[in-house]
Each structure stands twice: as C-alpha cells, then as structure tokens.
Structure to design on (111 residues):
C-alpha cells in the first residue's frame, strides 16, 4: 500500500475574477466528479473568491445534489476559489454548466 499527498503552492498574486473553468477530477464506471475554478484574466486561481455558483446539467446524466454538503449541492459558495459536484453518467454524453453573477458561464461535455 502506498500513501500519497499532493500539494499545490500558489505564490502568484491574482487579479479580479474573470473566468470559470470546469475539469473532470475523478471518474469511475458510473460517477464523474467535476471541479469548477474561478480564475483571473491570466488563468491564476482566485483563492479568496467566495462567489455562489450554480451547477446545471443537460442530457441523460443526473447531478448528485441536494445532499447539503460541499460536494453535493447544486448551489454552493466557492471555497479557495473552487467548487465540486458529481454526476451520475447516462448512456450518452451530458453537458455540465456552472454560472455565477458577473462572470461568463462555463460548460463541459462529459461522456
């Protein structure tokens, strides 16, 4: 058995939040976890961002939401500039979207 710890150090100062990014962080046979990040115009993570974001899904997939947890809520406040949600995959691709006030929405196709 092997234990691993990964650290990400950010020393770059960030500017005003400008863009939402979505990426898959975990995938199993039926479940996909997607992370939303709020970055500035240079792509630097805005660690102090606490925006309230809304996750949506289009297609046969279903969000694992309404759990009242930081990774199981459709509407959640960012923590360290990030938020996560999981999706139960369907048989066809689904599109996950994330929105917040004043920032263009982001979409990611999950297949």
């Amino acid at each position: 058995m092997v234990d691993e710890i990964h650290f990400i150090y950010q020393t770059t100062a960030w500017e005003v939040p400008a863009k939402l990014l979505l990426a898959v962080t975990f995938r199993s046979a039926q479940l996909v976890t997607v992370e939303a990040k709020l970055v500035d115009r240079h792509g630097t993570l805005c660690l102090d961002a606490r925006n309230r974001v809304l996750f949506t899904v289009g297609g046969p997939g279903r969000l694992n939401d309404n759990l009242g947890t930081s990774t199981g809520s459709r509407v959640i406040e960012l923590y360290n500039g990030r938020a996560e949600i999981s999706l139960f995959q369907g048989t066809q691709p689904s599109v996950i979207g994330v929105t917040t006030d004043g920032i263009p929405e982001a979409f990611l196709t999950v297949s």
User: Anything to note?
Assistant: The chain has one domain: 19-110. Residues 3 and 26 are 18 Å apart (CA to CA). The chain has a mean pLDDT of 92.
